[in-house]
Specification:
Helix content is 41%, strand content 19%. It is of the alpha+beta class. The strands form two sheets. A seven-stranded mixed sheet has the order 1-4-5-9-8-7-6, with helices on both faces. It has a two-stranded antiparallel sheet with strand order 2-3. Strand 6 and strand 7 form a beta hairpin. The structure holds phenylalanine. The site of phenylalanine has 11 residues, from strand 8 and strand 9.
Length: 344
């Protein structure tokens, strides 16, 4: 009697096990091939669920009917779940009831991140003017980020950029300007290059500032490059990027690695200079810093500043994207919220 019961018990537990396994496997059925191998394994003529019925001979006669019913029920359940799965009956569906008028399954797809979109537009404008692209590391040495850019230790300009230091001489770059140094070390003038990338500053996170952001640096070095070239190039850029009638305003500023240094404003593209909430009623939007490359910078890379001159500029992508798309919180760029990103 004891052995009779154990035959029934083990047969029932193998039914349970197969039910669990089949249900788990059904979750990974995702195309015709996996559906077909599931069907062969469980539901086919030699499938596991048919094999189960063969166990009947191990079961005491008076319990066979109960076992048979349970095995049949299991087969019916699995068959029903398989048929209900989206891939279960793919062949039949395509053959018998394919309706070309049915709307398709929505297929979620990504979109280009607004910052990448802005970067691509800026990149294409400068590439068409004959600039090349250059890149440098985000983990940078103090030398490239500051020293070689005419910003020695204890220079007050270092305070403007709250730096994340990794060690005394290694840091997360606070600007893309160190890539200027790397480019000039490798390449002799003439140089025309733009350098996009991430930069980091230890700033309090708010709607206006974040601990990382993106810049595009520009560098043009050759014989006889003048401030007029800087002005002409950046005006041409602004007119292609914003609007062909855009005006720019050049204000004196200070950066250790350029002399003279300027900041460039563009006429507010929303109110056309009349004054609105985006430009804080001024009619102008500040978009970049620029200047003529400082002779000390040329000295640090061995470029003869008697022979060559150049201009450099740097702009923040977030700021331009916020303005261009009318976004009011910089953190949205980093939250990966599909409801935000899908709008671009
Ligand atoms: N690196 C400067 C900044 O981060 C911008 C800049 C680049 C200014 C090149 C002048 C020349 O603010």
């Amino acid at each position: 009697m004891a052995s009779d019961n154990s035959g029934m018990n083990s047969a029932v537990s193998s039914l349970d096990r197969i039910r669990r396994e089949a249900e788990a496997e059904l979750l990974s059925v995702c195309d015709e091939a996996t559906a077909e191998s599931f069907r062969i394994k469980y539901l086919g003529k030699k499938g596991l669920l048919r094999e189960l019925l063969k166990n009947v001979k191990d079961i005491p006669e008076e319990q066979r009917r109960e076992y048979g019913a349970a095995a049949n029920q299991l087969r019916a359940d699995i068959e029903q779940k398989f048929d209900a799965a989206p891939w279960g009956k793919i062949e039949q569906k395509t053959a018998e009831s394919f309706d070309p008028g049915m709307p398709g399954f929505p297929f979620p797809h990504g979109s280009i991140h607004p910052l990448i979109h802005i970067r691509n537009q800026i990149r294409d404008i400068f590439l068409s003017m004959g600039f090349t692209m250059s890149y440098g590391p985000e983990i940078e040495s103090d030398y490239y980020n500051f020293e070689a850019l005419n910003t020695p230790k204890h220079h007050p300009a270092r305070d403007m950029q709250d730096t994340f230091y990794i060690s005394e001489s290694v840091l997360l770059r606070t600007q893309t300007s160190p890539v200027q140094i790397r480019v000039m070390e490798k390449q002799k003038p003439p140089i025309r290059s733009i350098m996009p990338g991430r930069v980091y500053r230890n700033e309090e996170i708010s709607a206006r500032s974040y601990c990382l952001f993106h810049q595009i640096e520009g560098l043009y070095v050759d014989e006889g490059v003048s401030f007029a070239d800087l002005k002409g190039t950046l005006l041409a850029f602004a007119r292609r990027f914003f609007d062909e009638k855009t005006k720019i305003k050049i204000r004196p500023s200070f950066f250790p690695f350029t002399e003279p240094s300027v900041e460039i404003d563009v006429e507010c593209f929303l109110c056309k200079g009349v004054g609105c909430s985006i430009c804080k009623r001024s009619g102008w939007l500040e978009i970049l810093g620029a200047g003529m490359v400082h002779p000390n910078v040329f000295k640090s890379v061995g470029v003869d500043s008697e022979k060559y001159t150049g201009f450099a500029f740097g702009m923040g992508l977030e700021r331009i994207a916020l303005l261009k798309y009318g976004i009011d919180d910089i953190r949205l760029f980093y939250e990966n919220d599909a409801r935000f990103l899908n709008q671009f």
